[in-house]
Amino acid sequence: MNKISELLKIKYPIIQGGMIWCSGWELASAVSNSGGLGLIGSGSMYPDVLREHIQKCKKATNKPFGVNLPLLYPQTDDHINVILEECVKIVFTSAGNPKKYTGFLKEKGVIVVHVIANEKFALKCEEARVDAIVAEGFEAGGHNGFEETTTMVLIPQIKKIISVPLIAAGGIGTGNSMLAAMALGADAVQIGSRFAASLESSAHENFKQEILNTKDGGTKLSLKRLVPVRLIRNKFLREIEELEQRGESREQLLELLGRGRAKKGMFEGDLDEGELEIGQVSAGVSAILPATQIIEEIIMEFNQAKNRLNNFQF
Q1: Which fold does the domain 3-202 belong to in CATH?
Q2: Do β-strands 229-232 and 219-222 pair in parallel, antiparallel, or remain unpaired?
Q3: pLDDT above 90 (res 123)
Q4: Rounded Cα gap, residues 279 and 276, in angstroms
């Protein structure tokens, strides 16, 4: 059996990214019911809201699901208390040092997976004894690595230096790219952008439609002086670029960013003033589909691509 499927007790080695403002209980439960692993994105939730989403997810599926826990937010301890009280057994941590919470969570019987973008943090994950690692390439949406290493380069690099199962993320949205990631050494894939535009995504319909409208070159990695994030090109991004080109301070960038820009864009649908986080693979997303259909298409494409490669002889 596939290492990740066995570890997480899922049918398909497909993990839905825990995206802020997109990954509520409806999406997580739909992905889990379809054979993947659904993740609730806690980064956009207060603790009481997270509890509500976990409870609704438990009612909507009897399959495994997890919570994505960005470690850069001040309420992380409160989120962990909710996760433990609600008996969630899978946590994907990100945006911080894996050593901080992994040991504590594992003592409580929680499977811990950490997201990284470079070799340094992959080795920290090994030292922290995480159960698996997500290696996320430059193509990914949302917060990203400073190194700008592409998924095709990153996966074999990380595979060589770790012993735990490896999940590939960044630029993956089809069965073909899933097979490519596994050929490079991944045991599973994590997919965000494709599910952000799904029927069950909690994102605003304006944002979903903007994902469909995004073409080649329609996203850019920005805010590198703060925390790198890949965004759809819009009025807000142009304002950021103007400040950066003028050499403005971090404080001025933070003032422009303000509070709630991601919510304004992705959840409230303000396509001009909002922060629209999405991956490069959005250029290939052409329809808003149910999560079940997305997974069925990915598995069908994966098998077709695998069969096609079996015909090659060298």
Answers
A1: TIM Barrel (3.20.20)
A2: antiparallel
A3: yes
A4: 10
Whole-model pTM: value is 0.95
pLDDT at position 17 is 96
Residue 253 has pLDDT above 80, yes or no: no
Q: In the chain, pLDDT over 70 holds for what percent of residues?
A: 99
Q: Note the pLDDT tens digit of each residue in 202-238.
A: 999 999 999 999 999 999 988 887 778 899 999 999 9
Q: Hey, where are the domains in the chain? A: 3-202, 205-281
Q: Could you tell me the two tokens for 262? A: 């991601």
3-state SS record for the chain: CCHHHHHHCCCCCEEECCCCCCCCHHHHHHHHHCCCEEEEEHHHCCHHHHHHHHHHHHHHCCCCEEEEEECCCCCHHHHHHHHHHCCCCEEEEECCCCCCCHHHHHHCCCEEEEEECCHHHHHHHHHHCCCEEEEECCCCCEECCCCCCCHHHHHHHHHHHCCCCEEEECCCCCHHHHHHHHHCCCCEEEECHHHHCCCCCCCCHHHHHHHHHCCCCCEEEECCCCCCEEEECCHHHHHHHHHHHCCCCHHHHHHHHCCCHHHHHHHCCCCCCCCCECCHHHHHCCCCCCHHHHHHHHHHHHHHHHHHHHCCCC
